[in-house]
Structure formats: C-alpha cells, structure tokens
Specification:
- Two copies of one chain form a homodimer.
- Chain A is of the alpha/beta class.
- Chain A is built from nine helices and 16 strands.
- Chain A starts with a strand and ends with a strand.
- Strand 14 of chain A pairs antiparallel with strand 14 of chain B, so a sheet runs across the interface.
C-alpha cells in the first residue's frame, strides 16, 4: 500500500519578516510501516510563535529548522496502520515531539501517545493539553505563583498561552490585566475569560489606559511579546515583582528591542526568569491533568483559531506572527 | 560642654551629573547627650554609589535624601561621652543605620553597635564588615551560588563589593573574570585578588578581550554597572545563567541605558534578580563572620581608597561615581 503524504518544507530562510516564499508544498509517497512502527494520519497541527525562531540559523535554545525538510510542529491524529502492540487502527494519538507540517507519517510506536478524544476534542492535544498549556501552567504556577492581592499582567492575552495564564491566575485570586491587540480580543478576555481588565495596545492612549487599569502597580508578569509593551509594564512594577519571560514575539524578525526601564529591576528588586517548557517535562502530566479538569468542568475557556487544510498553514502562521489569530492557532489537516 | 559638629548637607539636587555645588559644609553646635544617649566622634565615613540615587527626588527603593540635611552614610568611630549602660568613653562603634557625613553625633545607645577594632581596622566596619561586604556576600552566596566549572563575571571588579564577590567566587571554585576601568585595577584584580582575568573596559577592543577571556561563556554575573557593559555580558551568557543586579551605576545620572540583548533572557533561560541588602538583614551576622574570618586569615584582600577629612567627601564621592576610587572609598574624619 502506498500513501500520498503532503508536506510543507522550509525552502528559504527569512531575511527579516518571513513570507510565503519561505515555504513549499511537497508530495511524498509512503510505503508500509515496518515492525514496531505505525502509519498515522495527522488531523491537527499546532502553529506556534517558537517556529519563527527555528526558521533562523542563529544560535537559540533549539537547533534551526533544516532547509528542504518538513517544518517542525506538534500534531495529533489517528492511527491508520499499526505494527506496534500498543496501538490499533483508529486509535487517537498525540505525537511526543510533533510530526510536523504534514498529513501523514510513519514512526515508531514509542513516538506517539494514545489520547482520549472523547472527554476533550482531539485538537486540544496540540494546545491546551500540549506544549502551550504546559507552558502557561508552568510559568504561572512554578515561576509567578500568583496570589490574592496581587496584580498579574499577561501579554498576548487571548493567545494559546496567555488565555490560560490569565484564567489560572484568576483562579488563584490575583487581579488579572491582559494586553491584547484589538477590541474584540479585549472584550473576549474580560467577558468570556473573566479578566479584570484588558488593554488594547493598538488603541491610542493605551499606556494611560494600562496605568489606570493597574492602580496598585504590577506584581506578576507573564511576558510573551517584549519591546515597547514590556518596557511599559516594567515602569509599573511593584517591589519584589516577578516576570516570567516566555516569548518576545515582537523581536523575532530581528528588530532591535531596546529596553529603557531596566533600572526597575534594581529599584524594585525584581526577579526575571526566562524559561522554555521543554526543560520541565516532569511537570507536564500534572499541568495537563489540572487543565483538563478545569476545562471539562467549564471553569476554563479555551478558544481555537482553525485554518483549514495543510496548504493554509504558511498563511495562517504568518498571520499569527502579526497577531491575526484569536485563540490557539491550529490547522485542521 | 559644647562640641562643634561639622556636617555636609545636600543643598541642591543634581540635574544630570552632580557637582560640588550640590553640597555645603555646615557647622553646628552639639550640647551634652541626654539619658540613654551617647556623644560619638565619627572616624570613618563610607562613600557608596547608592547615595547618588538618594540625591534625586524620584521614587526608588528608599526615601530621597532631604535637602539641607546631613547626607546619609555609614560611619564607624568612638564614643566620647556615654549616658547609656552598654557604652563607655573610648568604645569603638559602628552605627546601625549610619550617622551620615558629619564628624559628631548624639544618638540613642541602641543606634550603635560596639565593635572590636583590634582584630580588623575600625574602617572595615563601614565596608567589608558593613553594607558593601554583606551585599557582596549575599549576592554571591544566596543568589549566584557559584560552583566549580562555572565562569562568574563581576563588574566594578576592584570596588568595595566587586572585589569581595570575585574572591568569594574563587573560593567556591568558579573561574572569575572581572571588568574594571584601567590597567592598574585589572592588574590588581589578577595579581593580588587572584582573578583568572580582568578586562579593562576603557581599553580599545575590550569586547573582543572579554570574549577571549570567557571561552566557555558566562554562567554567573554580579552586575554593578549596567549599560553597554551589561549588554556585552548578556550576549555571552550560557543556558540557565544567573545575574544578580546590585547596581546600575552607569545610569545613575538619568542617562538612558537601553539594553539590546534582552533576547538572551529567553534564549538562555536566564534568571535575573535585583536585590538590596537592607531587605536581608538576617544574613548580615553570618556574612560578616565569614568575611572577617577570611580577611584575618589572609585569604581575602581588601583594599581601601582613603580621602582625608570631611571637607574632601564631596570631591571623593563625585570621583568615585566616575570610577576614580581604587578599592572601597572611605573618608577619614
């Protein structure tokens, strides 16, 4: 049996802002899985800001994405053919390290995990119950440790990570102020996710609005964006504040990102902690269990932004880097 | 009995760089100490970078220095007249919160601590065995925790704090690279204090020299300076590095201090911790005991830069802010 496997490759490294010309659709033929292997159909692909970093050749926390190979990415899907004792055709899975931007794959059974797609949708396993959810949980619970009486600020507030951060912090008693781009996202953060306030950084006078929304200063920050937004938050920090640096999306295209208010670190005795969730795999089961319990109990809103078909992945990815998504960006394959 | 007390007051807040015109010498008359009080003669005054921050009106971690009052500062000296049961004339003391830039003072006995000036010089109690020593010890031992196999970088490397940091880190097995201004200081750091290398940031090509002196990158940073030097260090950080931010002297005059390499915090998962030693008084006894043991055993070099007479304090202070001191800056009163 042969299967046509559609893939998206990285064919050109971006100079500054990436474009669709960096990607190419490629078709490959797959044969039968060997002993211990499975042939799988990816159904959902996660698109995440970290992928932008992989497109560069620069030293980072991970190897660069190789040219003319399948773009990396988390996937969930179903098993088509199994030569591994733990799986049978029809099983739903999440891939341990992601199977990338492609419709199919043949991998060892050890590379996938059977998941229950009846309690939560299969797509959640590339988001809330995947890397983004674990990231939100770890940064909030293990770095920031928000508590009643504190004000927590989260940027990219309705994104895959930010939305979970804010809701977890609310559940632990903090006052939560989001920063997001556009009225629709900000309304959603307040009305649906229960944030105390959300500031639209695209609106004129947003810095004054942010100040007004944090009358007692800022104690905890979950930072996804960097640049001017981060600098504005730094100026509002309270003594002994903590900042978890999860992403700096505004600088991913190589734009210089000077910080003017670094003095706040000294004056306010801040702790800043950069982190990458792959360093903390031991917390994933706990994180995912708690998040699954919250979402199935209706106590956590989780929104997805779904692009249809593998071919739409490059465009959806580029739009996401500019804040075009509203909720976790995924592709239905 | 009356005593003439010479004082230095802050009479004008600086706009940008402070000048001698910010200070004025004032003479006051002191009477006799009341019940429970002591009349003391300050013998040594500490000059420290933090005083620059106090001269401004801006919000910081401490109240601004009041205008037309004695400048704040740590002192040690001797008791002239005692109406307090714990002290007698001739006792040597260190002041708990400093008695400021003045020759004499009348204070409650509870505000001074009797110190042993036979084992170490009386002047050490405003430096190595005062706030700067505690700062160096806490930042090194409680924040950075240097270990064998690590490279620790300390700026203002021959200053009151930096010299102690580097020698403590060496004692705990780290490779230590200092950054200081001028050949004399760098030679001293390597030859006398045993640093593995010291880079003269005033020399052309110092960034290349710094890179060459840190072939395995940088794991720990004790930061006193900020600005371009800090940015250069950030670019050399290893994964999971830690940075203790003790001072940002290069920005104290309000000069913007943009940081370009903040991305290193994310990529290298750095922890940055600002701190002020007055938040950690509980560690002072331990810190001072360990430092006193090291210095009396000849295992810690401690250098002082001594200005003579209260009148020299403003000039010595201004010179220190530009790196003119070589070792702990004090004034013999």
């Amino acid at each position: 049996m042969t299967t046509i496997n559609k893939q998206i490759h990285l064919v050109r490294r971006p100079v500054g802002e990436p474009t669709e010309a960096c990607f190419a659709l490629v078709e490959k033929t797959l044969g039968d899985p060997g002993p211990g292997q499975v042939l799988v159909r990816n159904r959902f692909l996660s698109l995440d800001p970290y992928m932008r970093g992989r497109m560069d050749e620069a030293k980072s926390y991970a190897q660069p994405q190789a040219l003319n190979e399948v773009m990396v990415g988390a996937t969930s899907g179903e098993v088509l053919v199994s030569n591994h004792p733990d799986f049978k055709a029809g099983d739903t899975f999440a891939a341990k390290f992601g199977l990338g931007w492609q419709t199919h794959a043949i991998v060892k059974g050890e590379h996938i995990i059977k998941v229950d797609a009846s309690r939560v949708p299969l797509s959640y396993y590339v988001g809330l119950l995947g890397m983004p959810g674990a990231t939100a949980w770890y940064g909030t619970m293990k770095i920031l440790e928000p508590a009643a009486g504190q004000t927590l600020v989260v940027t990219a507030a309705t994104g895959a990570v930010g939305g979970v951060v804010g809701q977890l912090a609310k559940a632990h008693g903090a006052r939560v102020v989001g920063i997001a781009g556009g009225t629709a996202k900000c309304d959603y953060a307040v009305r649906e996710m229960g944030f105390d306030a959300c500031i639209d950084y695209k609106a004129p006078g947003w810095k004054e609005a942010f100040k007004a929304a944090t009358p007692d200063g800022v104690d905890r920050v979950f930072e996804n964006v960097g640049g001017e937004i981060f600098d504005t938050i730094l100026a509002r920090m309270n003594p002994f504040g903590r900042i978890a640096v999860c992403g700096l999306i505004s600088g991913y295209n190589g734009t210089p990102m000077p910080i003017a208010n670094f003095r706040s670190v000294l004056v306010n005795k801040l702790r800043i902690q950069g982190f990458i969730i792959s360093d903390h795999l031991e917390f994933w089961p706990q994180a995912h269990k708690e998040l699954a319990d919250l979402v199935t109990a209706g106590r956590l809103k989780y929104r997805e932004s779904v692009a249809e078909g593998l071919e739409s992945a490059p465009g959806a990815f580029l739009a996401m880097l500019k804040g075009g998504n509203f909720g976790k960006q995924i592709v239905r394959l």
